[in-house]
Write a structure and sequence with these properties.
There is one protein chain. This protein is mainly alpha-helical. The chain has seven helices and no strands. The model has no long low-confidence stretch (mean pLDDT 88).
């Protein structure tokens, strides 16, 4: 596949998947953000850090409107960046992925990356609404979360490379090895330093919606890139065969 066509496919797939992700988040996650921020505002009023005035609410509504209006655009931009990573990994691993067409291969890879780069780190450090988390620990929490993503992703890549050295019947050993490795890391990594003080039903529902939102991205990017790749690459190969 030509480099220019590859770049177009990757960016367009990521943009569309990011658009879907941003739209889904706006529909199912934002209501929980509003609830969480509402609780946070009431705590600010109770502690005297802020006053319940019309000026406060005008400023707050303006800020939230700005946040919401930019959410879908942010989803598109983020989708293009993550979609680029996905496209590169797919191009490098396409021939070794099981499946009789590029759509199945892309969806399978998206599922693997969703599992290793999102779900496993999420289970260790689940997303929390704005009412949860001390501002002084935000850097530590970010480092822990990003470190877990890196360890999980690099571990999956390492065991994938190892599996290529095994015969078919022994490839399962690499999968088991990754399971043991990531389980050990899961236990060894420090716990989230912040106590959950928000209502548990709000926190749990927010986390479920967050998982659905991110899952919509990975499912979308796999399907969309697979469709584009399958059609455009086939056309390119057909054109090349007649030239």
């Amino acid at each position: 596949m030509k480099t220019s066509l590859f770049i177009i496919i990757v960016l367009v797939s990521g943009a569309f998947a990011g658009l879907i992700h941003g739209t889904v988040n706006f529909a199912i996650v934002e209501p929980y953000l509003d609830q969480a921020i509402g609780i946070e505002n009431q705590n600010l009023f109770a502690s005297g850090e802020e006053e319940d005035t019309s000026e406060f609410w005008v400023e707050y509504e303006g800020y939230r409107d700005w946040q919401k209006s930019g959410q879908i655009l942010a989803g598109v931009i983020l989708g293009m960046s993550i979609g680029s990573l996905f496209g590169i990994v797919f191009a490098l691993s396409r021939k070794s992925l099981p499946g009789n067409n590029d759509i199945k291969k892309a969806v399978l890879l998206a599922g693997i990356m969703w599992f290793t780069l999102y779900l496993i780190p999420f289970l260790k450090y689940p997303a929390n609404p704005p009412t949860v988390g001390d501002g002084e620990t935000v850097v530590l929490r970010a480092i822990l979360y990003l470190s877990f993503i890196a360890i999980s992703g690099l571990g999956a890549f390492g065991f994938y490379k190892l599996s290529k050295k095994f015969q078919k019947n022994k490839k399962l050993l690499a999968l088991v090895g990754y399971g043991v490795f990531i389980s050990t890391v899961f236990v060894a990594m420090p716990e989230n330093p912040d106590e959950v003080t928000a209502p548990l039903n709000l926190v749990n529902e927010f986390r479920i919606m967050s998982v659905l939102g991110v899952t919509s991205f990975w499912a979308s990017v796999g399907i969309i890139l697979g469709i584009f790749w399958n059609k455009l690459n086939s056309k390119e190969e057909t054109t090349r065969s007649y030239s």
